[in-house]
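My current task is to audit a protein record that another person submitted. Alongside the sequence sits a line of tokens, each denoting a local backbone shape. Where you disagree with what is written, explain briefly why. This is what I was given:
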Amino acid sequence: MKKSLLFVIDSLDVAGAEKSLVTLLSSLDYSKYTVDLQLFAYGHALESLIPQEVNILKPLKYTNFSNLSLKDSVKRATIKGKYNMLASRIKYSTKIRRKNYNNPQKAIIFWQSVSSVIESNPKTYDIAISYAQGVPTYYVTDKVKAKKKIAWINASYRPDETVKRFQSMYYNQIDQIVAVSDSAKEVFLETFPNYVDKTTVLYDINNPDLISKMAQIGNGYEDHFNGIRILTVGRLAQQKGYDIALEACKQLKKEEIHFKWYVLGKGPLQAEIEAKIEEMELTEQFILLGVKANPYPYYKNADIYVQTSRFEGFGLAIAEARMLNVPVVTTEFDAVYNQMIHGKNGLVVDLNAEAVSNGIKTLINNELLRRKIVEYLRAEQKGNMEEIEKFYQLIG
């Protein structure tokens, strides 16, 4: 008898947790498991990479309703008598506009506003897995029946007291909590020390063979630039430190270095970052490429990979750069030393623009160091497919 699994995640947009889930699903033994996948947003790039054995569930009724224009949602509510959905939508929209909330706070406001109109999953699963904090965890706890419930922690952050109290109500009902790195676990347990006995570590699964093959598909950059290519991959969000990246870029331009800095990603700060690029006169140097379903040709043809994150649960984009032997310059966030060895597979620098630009200049100007880092990367153990065995142990 196959075990039934349910995975829940916000979407399959191109980001770290999402790519990690795609790799995990691509590695499962489907002779032993049936898998359902519940999303809260559909139509994103990574959906095409989900194995055909995975049953992507239909959108929740509220997901469909929330995708309507306000005019159409009022019309639908009037015709169908769905006034509760309309009231929930208006309640959430009104609350979210009042203040500049962070992501954990937004997730709580969303769930408090709309959970009453979100239907429960009709099945009973052996294992239900929330593959991200926030709404997926609240959904698995409140709306899913399962013999065992597991919640993933794939970002390191320290919640305020209000968020802590709300999340505790849900983590109390979760059987197992999985952090994607040792430091993510440590940060989580600083806030929730009472969950130490049910918290474990399982690293994001990286498949170097898959990434290597995908790096050969497509051309990546199309601008025929012949200088130094710098690449950053990540959501256009405060966590990723694009303000630091732009200041570092400005310093590199001032020193007349022949480079372009490319960014793969989208996010809530896109308009603000675009305005800053114009204001700082970096339109020729700092290039936003948007989201690519296959980012690996861009990694492969980059000279330096740069991460300016303020915090990360693990840093999957860094792992991907390492797997394609691209020297890394990264800021010193909590989880960075889970995979970085300063001076060996890249440079770990302080969280400021001067340190980032100096790290980049070091790799540009010190050809011997850059060559040694590439040689180290080529010899470095690639990937961690052994983590799939830990996953099988986790689900029993």
About this structure: The chain has 16 helices and 13 strands.
